[in-house]
Design goal:
Elements (H helix, E strand, L loop, with lengths): L2 H8 L3 H21 L4 H4 L10 H21 L3 H5 L16 H20 L12 H4 L7 H27 L8
Helix pairs in contact: 2-6, 2-8, 4-6, 4-8
């Protein structure tokens, strides 16, 4: 390792870049495990609760990427006022094309990345949903990144199980 590479590992923002790399890996997993499924299979409920893969991706777009980064971290008033409650994000109307949902996830990730890369890891949150969560348990961009990495990884695992139930395919990740 050169001196320059060593310095870049400790430069301001390197923690955020490292966390973003991990989050991007989980985002790729979410989309990768679904690659090759047709619209019918993406909408097929595989568990008694009735959720389906496309609903999971929409949840990740709206309740995770948009909510945590654009609303909570950035305080985007338009996003905050447009939030829905309950499980609405999980419901994808039958007339909504699959690519629209997948592209929304990609767009929300890009918009989230702009918020993430514009702030240091210890940046305070701009808004907190007291009505949903009471007193804050997350306080910084770092906290939100770790929360979203965990939630995205958990849901990527759900999608792994769903995909295996649908057609036997498995996503193998070697670290």
């Amino acid at each position: 390792m050169t001196v320059t590479e060593n310095l870049s590992d400790t430069a301001p923002g390197s923690e955020v870049r490292a966390l973003l790399r991990v989050l991007n890996g989980q985002r790729r997993h979410v989309l990768g495990i679904l690659d090759g499924l047709d619209a019918k299979d993406l909408r097929r409920p595989v568990l008694p609760s009735g959720w389906h893969c496309l609903g999971m991706v929409q949840h990740l777009s709206l309740d995770v990427e948009r909510f945590w980064f654009r609303a909570v971290v950035a305080g985007d008033e338009e996003v905050i006022h447009g939030l829905t409650s309950g499980d609405e994000a999980w419901k994808v109307p039958p007339d909504v094309p699959v690519m629209e949902v997948l592209d929304r996830y990609r767009r929300e990730a890009e918009l989230a990345d702009a918020v993430i890369t514009a702030a240091p890891a210890d940046a305070a949150l701009a808004w907190w949903p007291h009505d949903l969560f009471g007193e804050p348990h997350l306080h910084t961009l770092r906290d939100v990144l770790l929360h979203v990495i965990t939630e995205t990884a958990c849901h990527a695992g759900h999608l792994d199980a769903a995909r295996e139930l649908i057609d036997g395919s498995r996503w193998l990740v070697l670290t």
